[in-house]
From TrEMBL:
Pfam families: LDLRAD1_C. InterPro entries: LDL_receptor-like_sf, LDLRAD1_C. Residues 73-112 form the LDLRAD1-like C-terminal domain. Keywords: Disulfide bond. SUPFAM superfamilies: LDL receptor-like module. Residues 1-27 are annotated as: Disordered. This is Low density lipoprotein receptor class A domain containing 1. The gene is LDLRAD1.
Length: 117
């Protein structure tokens, strides 16, 4: 996730942290075509478009994976849909985490219902 900071003080002086850094902090890169950048639920945050619907909580609030901000397809074949308790995931967890004797879903379905990898 990237954070948007003020552009400066209005006198041409750039504010600290205004440079765009992938996976870091910075302003939305104006040099990139708009289809390459996606806003998060928090208007001061952005990600690269290819990070949407990748199963990973890139925005920090799951807005890159869940409605109403993002319309993602259902979990793919390598994923299990459940209410995740792991911050890294939102609505689906990788099936390799199923039946590993560790709770990843709030309803424990990853341990008792998921068929596994």
């Amino acid at each position: 996730m990237n954070k948007i900071f003020p552009q400066g003080d209005g006198n041409g002086n750039a504010a600290a942290g205004t440079k765009a850094l992938p996976g870091g902090e910075g302003d939305v890169p104006q040099s990139l075509p708009s289809f390459l950048v996606a806003r998060c639920g928090d208007p001061s945050s952005w990600i690269y478009s290819d990070q949407k619907c990748d199963g990973i909580n890139n925005c920090g609030d799951c807005s890159d994976e869940l409605s109403p901000v993002t319309a993602c397809p259902p979990c793919g074949p390598g994923w299990w849909r459940c209410p995740s308790i792991v911050f890294k995931y939102c609505d689906c967890i990788p099936r390799v985490l199923c039946r590993d004797h560790t709770q990843h879903c709030s309803d424990w379905s990853d341990e008792y219902s998921c068929p596994g990898p």
